[in-house]
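#struct-queue
[09:14] JT: dropping the first one here, sequence first, then the structure tokens:
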Amino acid sequence: MVNTRRNGQPNGDDEAPNFEAMIANALPTILPGLTTKLTTRITNDIRNGAGSSNGSGGGAPPTDIYVWIERFGKLKPLSFSSAATTTEAEDWITHMEKLFNVLGCTDNFKTRLATFKLEGNELNWWKAYKQAKGGEDFATTCTWSNFRDIFYQHYFPLSEQQRFEREYSSIYQFESEPSGEYMQRFLWLVSFVGPVAGDARRQARHFKRGLK
């Protein structure tokens, strides 16, 4: 990606907008062509960030993992044993997030539900990783965001992770690029760089700096 950035920078003292609200408001209008994959990720991230994960709207969500496994199984989740490309790995994560949204699954069960569908070499990898981190206690407390980062680090070489980070740090809106496409590209990179992107306020400032 070209590293040249627009000279006009917003005032660093300006109050950053509510990034979650900005995304939610923009999706129906400026991003009508946004892919289902990205929409699922954005919606899931906003929901997790807001601390609301009961999508059913009625009553408290189940607190028993076996109830979640039963509901999860009825949606026929895809198993994952290997991926020939990083895109296949990303697609499986997106598939899991789509099911979690449908279920209204709480964050503390997502990792265990997803890893329940790992098979073959991937199951062996997860068992070894989990054991090194403390066994079942780690699996029980591992948030979905943490698992997703671990999974991507497993599948994305360090060189590729660093390339995403460089691309994110220098991102700006191209001369003829619609605002919606710039936002889509920005959010796609945020999903890969993880903690490097910072919190919502920091992301909002970075997004504004790249706007033309």
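[09:21] JT: and here's the second one, same format:
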Amino acid sequence: MDRTAIRPKAKQKLAGPWVMILGFALIVVFGTLLLKLPVAARDGTTITWEDAFFTATSATTVTGLAVRNTANDFSFVGQIFILLLLQVGGVGFIAFSVLLYRIIGRRITLQTRFLVQQSLGTQEASGVVQLALYVLAITLGLEATGALLLWLRWRTTLGDAEAAWQA
């Protein structure tokens, strides 16, 4: 008997598009589970599995659709979960994974660099990690600027804390 015939096949890595599809699916599932936690709903409100799934999907894909009133049905914690899903979906979980790799000090593999290249739609493979970090920095900078401007506009009518949250 040939020994190579009984050896298990080497693990095959997923192609880039499949990694992105599965990544988004996992984020939606994780978001659904977070939104189903009792702490995510306001007192006296029950979030169904369908509503949690739809909200997580809508937030991750940044469509802006909602089947529940976010301000009335979700608690502060639930709104934070939705905000995080919007951030990860808006900038892209691949770009966030680059940031996470940098924070924990891991090297970014060639396969991850190709995923970043595909998710950002660039032709050049060189400099994609720096580009992903640049995209994150610009996005967060613009969001912070917008939040500051909204806070300045609303703080006299809503108060500092509420204006900061709404901004």
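[09:30] RK: nice, looked through the second one.
[09:31] RK: The mean pLDDT is 83.
[09:31] JT: good to know. The chain has nine helices and no strands.
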